[in-house]
């Protein structure tokens, strides 16, 4: 049996997802049922945590880096609350410090950004339709498909 190169106690609860950045070598993300997403800098000596965030998605079920080099620092995180956060990790100072040789110079004040994608509150079936109990509906609120 071969011995692991290194092991990582990444979270206080089960790890439910991880992703290796396809464009930035050594950039790893993990997600857990502890509701945290963590970013790691993997070097020959092993990984070191760069930053940890609770992004408000509940228990983290998925972490995925953007596949395109132009937006390689963006990380999608989804969880048990049914929403997704897109985290532009390049706006985090610790990420910039850890990967300075891979991040172009940023000018002006840089604020950490999150883009939330929540479940749409309207259903497409309801759009342009007749409201329950409204005009054109038959018994028990169902619209009749028969010709009058």
Strand content: 25-35%
Show unreliable segments. Answer: 122-146
How would you write the strand order of the largest sheet? 1-2-3-4
Helical percentage: under 10%
Number of helices: 1
Task: Tell me the series of helices and strands, N- to C-terminal.
Answer: EEEEEEEHE
How would you portray this structure in words?
With 148 residues, the protein is mainly beta. It has one helix and eight strands; from the N terminus they run βββββββαβ. It has one helix at residues 93-98; strands at 15-20, 27-32, 37-43, 46-53, 60-65, 74-79, 84-88, 113-117. It has a four-stranded antiparallel sheet with strand order 1-2-3-4. Strands 5-6-7-8 form a four-stranded antiparallel sheet, with no helix packed on it. The relative contact order is 0.13.
Short characterization:
The chain is mainly beta. Helices cover 4% and strands 33% of the residues.
List keywords for this structure.
mainly beta; four-stranded antiparallel beta sheet; 1 helix; 4% helix; disordered C terminus
